[in-house]
Amino acid sequence: MLKVVGASWVKIRMSTWIIGIVLVFGIIVVILGQMGESEEDGNYSATAYWNEETGFEIKFWGQGLEKDKIPKGVARVYFQPHIDTTGWAIIDVETQSEYPDWVQAYAAGMLEGSLSWQLIYWHWKNTVQSVCQNQTLFCKYIKKYLEENFKSVKELYENTDDPYWHQAYLFYIQLEGMQQGFEHGVKRKGLIIEEIEFIDFLWMNAASDIIDLEYKFYDSKPYSTTTTNSSSFSANNNNNSNLLLKKLIQGRSDNVESMEKLSFVGCGVTLGSALLNSFQNMRNYFSPIIPLDQTKLLVAGTPITVFNKNLWNLVSPLKQLLSGVRVVVANRLSNNASDWGSYLSKYNSGTGNKQWLIIDVDKFKRKINDSSVGERENFFWVAEQLPGHFKIDDLTENLINSSYWASYGLPFYKDMYEMSGTNYMKENFGDAFSYENSPLAKIYRRDHNKSTSIKSILNLMRSNSFKRDPLSLGNPRCAIGARGDIPNKVSNSFPIGVIDSKIISLEKKLENVTSNDTTTNNNNNIIPFNNNVSNDELIIFKAVAGPAHSLHKNSENLKGNDEIRKEKNETVEVEGIGVGGGDDDTLKPFNWQNSVFNEFPHNGHPNNWDFDAISLSP
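== Phospholipase B-like ==
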């Protein structure tokens, strides 16, 4: 049991925790609560309570409690750490709107920190601690920048009553709760570990910002002569009645993280008012992939590299918000895609630069449910951010005419393309930096029409046939399912590439629409709090953890290891396109033990990243 009295944002210490931290996989050890004997299903739950006199109190229910039976309190949490079987840990937090906003935010943070402390600690050792031990000067630069930025954010909040900053206030309240919960989780286990400073938590939360800050602080840092390994893809199929959104996350192998966070926080835009978008699916330092129900937008972002070094002069720790913070505020306040872009553009940090695909769900629903709605219903928008610059436009007509949109790290808008310096890279390094003729542009153009079902688009997003596909130029990084760790003849190996994949399908419910969804195991079918999707609509969400590899035909197989498939004499079956890259067209799962990069810190990681897709049910 944990009791906290008198929580206050003003009293945040430098060891406070941050919501939405990038969390690494691992087996969480949680002491069972006081619910008596229950089935040990590997899923943990807890409830936070609060009143003005006694403050906060957490009760841990241990394992085996069904999600809808968890007492509500101020907030309740359901934690599913099935990383050994699915590659994912899922944490679902729900708060009750009748409580004050700050109470809800603090309680949500406490619950998450107390259950996921082990994952937090492992990820800190793999990232921040490792970098600071080996790159002390860079570590000093980053920490100073983040400290100055945090101080500036506090000053801005304290001098305004803008709803934008009300959300920032709740954000940091939740940080304080997260830090308190983290410390309590460690204490419950009876451990003494290194102290993790608040600024380290902010670092872990700002991964995409840190990448760009490295270019700001080091003028001589070389740019890659290949483009980003991350991509996003949207397809408009079946006479415009089906919309698919795919996102591939790039990263280093020691930074593989798959903590899926489902957060329902019933806080207001300002005190006493209703929040527009209260349900968020958050992952990777707040980067949203799919807000499922009770929300208006689907958003996916693909990193853009800034080659124009003059733009880094516009990046400052003062009066600017890191990208993750701006994404959270935009998610909570936006009523449509244009709003979302407007909120994201405010206090632009010039870090975490991306091309964002934004889908207005309400407008798309009207389009598929009402034949009188015009073709151009403004449901698809594209935004791009650079230091000091932001642009967003309605590109619904482009999506409908082409039936797809692919985002692969190159700016679409001509002025952003030139301003970023990508045109210079094209002139000096060729079509690798051409928006129309880069390897990924050509591959998507050739293969997009094969994304006709959940199964086929999963295969598309994991595809890598670099040895036999002429468009990949013999480079395993020049494929949709990019793998930088695979030895090849044209580039040096490096532990970077696609580290997880997600897809969402939004469509009218048809009799045969689930024919390609074979997931049946409970651990592979995640149902969040507040699943209020209409019976006339169908949302299908799939996610695959780890670097790209060939998917297996039985997605309900949870063992995630080759031996079991060999025992069953199973063969790999794919639909639509080839998935592979080796001589036998089979891309083997990433394996730490067999990798030349096994000296990289990977505390808490599974050794063999051989996982099939999971389903997240709305």
